[in-house]
Amino acid sequence: TGEAEAARAAMGGSASLLPREALGEYQELTFLSKQEILLAYKRFSELLPKEERENACSARVPKSQILTLPELRANPFQHRICRVFSTSGNGDDSMSFEDFLDMLSVFSDSATSDVKSHYAFRIFDFDDDGTLDRKDLEKLVNCLTGQGEESRLSHAEMEQLIQNILEESDIDKDGTINLSEFQHVVSRSPDFTRYSVLQ
Predict the structure, then answer these.
(1) How many angstroms separate the most distant Cα atoms in the chain?
(2) Over the Cα atoms of the chain, what is R_g?
(3) How far apart are CA 54 and CA 125, in angstroms?
(4) Among 70, 106, 170, 187, which is least packed by CB within 10 angstroms?
């Protein structure tokens, strides 16, 4: 099977090596099974140039390569997803293997809705200030409706929609949505995780 091949390659085939102790640790720290972690390692290695595959555990994959993944290719929040999961210190949104695993773990069906909503909140928080304000909500709506002329909302429609979102979600009425308000709304919308940005 494909999984058995992935396991052989990742555990010490001719390609790169994922240390056995790391595998157990990754299993504890993510929502992924052993097979899924091995497959992730194989996928991550394949995003690297051949000469770097030996040391995939210490390599970083550039954002341009991450964006070729089928999970992200059609996702309107692809750039935000890279920003949120990347631990790169220089802002290039490149990913280490652990960043990549974190992302796949949150995308996984096994991730809890709390974890999914926490990351969705961070992805929607475009200015990274810890709250969703009107500007964040406008960008969020634009991402969801597309940037084409025919799908773009008028100023009045956008204002009305943002007003509706705030009325529904802004419990303390401070004009922004914080994480706990966001999670409260999500907990009342079981469809959120099904149609979520993190599928």
Answers:
(1) 60
(2) 19
(3) 36
(4) 70
Do 63 and 92 form a contact (C-beta atoms < 8 A)? yes
Could you tell me the two tokens for 164? 């509706």
Q: What is residue 172's predicted lDDT score, i.e. its pLDDT?
A: 97
Q: How many CB atoms lie within 10 A of CB 141?
A: 16
**Which residue has tokens 């280490």?**
96
Mean pLDDT by 10 residues, the chain (199 residues): 53 61 94 96 96 92 96 92 97 97 95 92 97 96 79 88 94 97 86 60
Dig out the tokens for 105 from the structure. 């773990």
Rounded Cα–Cα distance for residues 199 and 29 (Å): 19
Same fold flag, 18-105 and 112-193: yes
Asked if residues 121 and 108 have their Cβ atoms less than 8 Å apart, the reply is: no
Distance CA 21, CA 54 (A): 18
- CA nearest neighbour of 107 among 69, 134, 145, 142: 69
Topology of the domain covering 18-105: Recoverin; domain 1 (1.10.238)
CB 191 within 8 A of CB 117: no
The domain segmentation of the chain, as residue ranges, is 18-105, 112-193
Q: Return the DSSP state at 74.
A: T
Superfamily of domain 112-193: EF-hand (1.10.238.10)
**Residue 172: closest CA among 163, 181, 164:** 181
Model's pTM, two decimal places?
0.85
